[in-house]
Design goal:
heterodimer, A: 202 residues, alpha+beta, 4-stranded mixed β-sheet, 9 helices, B: 201 residues, 4 strands, 9% strand, globular
Chain lengths: 202, 201
């Protein structure tokens, strides 16, 4: 019986970084995916009224980044010392702005506004973000120190989502970031998970 | 003993939690406050074009929460176990949306829009958040376990801003009031609150 129980919708969404970390470290967990219809009954039982939640050691955690950091600690993927951990934190937090813009664009119902948001992302936000992050990754393809951390995994997950919405070779001319992606994909646990994970719309 | 240099504007804003944590841990640091005029020159030298930044051991860290977590760890205020630390993280993250809405309200330049936002915040946003967090705070006045962590200090900091606009916000919330009391009495924090520069926000 796994000690970890992750609950989310049947989607990658905010749970996928967590699932990738469990996979990277080979940690067994219960990957519960609920139907939309079952959500209203579960909602009041969650700490703050949203998913994902992680049940572990009799406690229930929410907030996807808090959960991801916790799993990264248990997986030994959080960074080797204080400064590396701070670097990893800063890389993960720095991705929140662009993620927010992507979500707003996806949710936008007005087609004209949606196109404007899309153009803003592809011509301004995304290139600026990738330039900054190319400088923050080292030539070995890691964001924090010289080995894989959750910051690399989180970046990989973001780029996969970006590619799904904005096809194209965004990492052209960015060798450090190309290496980050390769390092994450080369992790055997992640490679296996990506092949086997359930298909979902987002 | 590493040297810490914090750079931010001369405001509390996104730097104050970091300063409170240095104070709580009684950790000396350089509290650099730049003028807006000097910002364009400094901006390209920062990792992500933003402040606050923390320089330590030749490295530069940005993102206020990443810096705060780093300082909390140095000050021994992160939480004792991984689970305690995750709980502190979750409580901090859970307050971010409310903090953003408050910030938007304060920054609103149009007077009638601002009044609208203030009403919405005070009547719709704040009460359920405080009710939820009253439940999270133990009746001993700590959010995590049985001792002070940075989540107590972060809550104090947030309410420091909010009670400036809504002075009676914590009336009736016994646990939350206890959290505030305990944080204010931490010697390093009591000293900082007396001595810190007075700024509008």
């Amino acid at each position: 019986m796994p000690a970890y129980k992750l609950t989310y919708f049947n989607a990658r969404g905010r749970a996928e970084p967590i699932r990738l970390l469990f996979a990277a470290a080979g940690i067994k967990y219960e990957d519960v995916r609920i139907e939309g219809a079952d959500w209203p009954a579960l909602k009041p039982k969650t700490p703050m009224g949203y998913l994902p939640i992680l049940e572990v050691d009799g406690a229930t955690l929410c907030e996807s980044t808090a959960i991801a950091r916790f799993v990264a600690k248990r997986a030994g993927l959080v960074g080797k010392d204080d400064l590396q951990q701070a670097k990893a934190d800063m890389i993960v937090d720095g991705m929140k702005d662009i993620l927010k813009k992507l979500i707003l664009m996806v949710l936008e119902k007005d087609e004209i506004k949606k196109e404007e948001l899309k153009t803003d992302i592809s011509e301004k936000t995304l290139p600026e973000f990738l330039s900054k992050y190319e400088n923050l990754a080292n030539p070995s393809g890691f964001f924090a120190g010289d080995s894989l951390s959750w910051a690399d995994v989180d970046f990989y997950n973001l780029i996969e989502r970006v590619r799904a919405m904005f096809p194209g070779d965004h990492l052209k001319g960015k060798p450090n970031l190309v290496k980050v992606m390769a390092n994450v994909k080369a992790n055997p646990g992640i490679a296996k998970w990506v092949k086997e994970r359930p298909e979902s719309a987002f | 003993m590493p040297a810490y240099k914090l750079t931010y504007f001369n405001v509390r804003g996104r730097g104050e939690l970091i300063r409170l944590l240095f104070a709580a841990g009684e950790i000396p640091y350089e509290d650099v406050r730049i003028e807006s005029d000097n910002w364009p020159e400094l901006k390209p030298k920062t990792p992500m074009g933003q402040v606050p930044i923390l320089e330590v051991d030749g490295e530069v860290i940005c993102q206020s929460m990443a810096i705060a977590r780093f300082v909390a760890r140095e000050a021994g205020l992160l939480g004792k176990t991984h689970l305690d630390q995750a709980r502190a993280d979750m409580l901090l993250d859970g307050g971010i949306d409310v903090g953003k809405l408050f910030e938007e309200m304060v920054m609103e330049k149009d007077a009638s829009k601002k009044a609208e936002k203030k009403k919405e915040f005070g009547e719709k946003t704040l009460p359920p958040f405080l009710a939820l967090y009253e439940g999270f705070a133990g009746d001993n006045g700590y959010f995590v376990g049985y001792s002070l962590t940075w989540s107590d200090i972060a809550f104090f900091n947030m309410m420091d801003f909010i009670t400036a606009e809504f002075p009676s916000a914590l009336d009736g919330y016994c646990n939350l009031t206890k959290v505030i009391k305990i944080v204010k009495r931490v010697p390093g924090i009591a000293k900082w609150l007396k001595e810190r520069p007075i700024t509008d926000n």
